[in-house]
Amino acid sequence: ESLDKGLEKSSQGFFDKISRAVIGKSKVDDEVLDELEEVLIASDVGVNTTVKIIERIEARVERDKYVNTSELDKILREEISALLLENPHSQTKNIDETKKPYVIMVVGVNGVGKTTTIGKLANQFKSQGLKVVLGAGDTFRAAAVDQLVIWSERVGVPIVKQNMGSDPASVAFDTVQSAVAQNADVVIIDTAGRLHNKINLMNELSKIKRVMQKVLPEAPHEVLLVLDGSTGQNAFEQAKQFTAATEVTALAVTKLDGTAKGGVVIGISDQFQIPVKYIGVGEKMEDLQLFNGEEFVDSFFK
Ligand code: GDP
């Protein structure tokens, strides 16, 4: 239900636009498909994924000859579901509990909701009875460390930090070491999301990995890229840059409650073939959900 509420704006915007596109039309024809294409692009599904979806619908229209516009919702929903399910990881489980501690390294640019997502995740894990340790690896911004400390207090989990300006890799090392010593289940390490240039980003992230591997050779088990779902094409661009700089294993798409552009989830999942694992649908501690492709499409099409 909270998913439906969180995606209210996306689904409303989407349906209003589709309804407008088919007004006075009974048959799905080229004109309707052109309108639909515009609606998908305006919802930030992205050009490549939009073209893919339109081609699939065209093929159906071709095959079935007469397709009523009243069926367009249903057909679109089927094609989008199929697309999401083609991403082999569209339904992921939370963490692998056989890996202990399970280390999640969180990447993304400032302002996308990285700190909030870490806080929400810590809360989820803790309420599942898991022992969590946070690492304040964004040492370039005092505010980032302060915010994460606030979240650690709110959730009630320990945090490892150093002084501002210290080496993020050193924070990662300390955090994993402390988690191992405490026999923790999950480690969540923040990093600085500075996209100043690709080589620097690559070097920074690989150093953090390399140094934490001195404590735990198989870490990190997850590299979670946080993207702001309300920024549309910027989110695509950031996904491109981070995936080029490091091996991103999962995505968290935030702020889907405040946008009519939830289509970004569909496009990003399709284009990067990296599982969208979490979606943020509000500012509160509980407003983070494990992504489920089918549920998402259901809510989107409510
Ligand atoms: P960071 O700079 O990436 O660490 O971003 P923050 O975690 O500080 O978040 C930036 C702002 O976005 C804050 O005001 C958060 O409350 C807000 N925010 C984060 N996630 C969500 C979300 O899913 N929905 C909404 N509406 N706001 C969010």
Automatic annotation (TrEMBL):
Q: Which reaction does it catalyse?
A: GTP + H2O = GDP + phosphate + H(+)
| Protein residues bound to GTP | 108-115, 190-194, 254-257
Bilayer topology: Peripheral membrane protein
Q: Determine the domain of life of the protein's source.
A: Bacteria
Q: Name one Pfam family in it.
A: SRP54_N
Where is this protein found?
A: Cell membrane; Cytoplasm
Tell me, what is an example of a GO biological process annotation in this record?
A: SRP-dependent cotranslational protein targeting to membrane
Which GO cellular component terms are attached? cytoplasm; plasma membrane
Which CDD domains does the annotation name?
FtsY
State the function annotated in the UniProt record.
Answer: Involved in targeting and insertion of nascent membrane proteins into the cytoplasmic membrane. Acts as a receptor for the complex formed by the signal recognition particle (SRP) and the ribosome-nascent chain (RNC).
Record note on quaternary structure: Part of the signal recognition particle protein translocation system, which is composed of SRP and FtsY.
Q: Which protein is depicted?
A: Signal recognition particle receptor FtsY
Please tell me the species this chain comes from. Answer: Cloacibacterium normanense
Q: Which gene encodes it?
A: ftsY
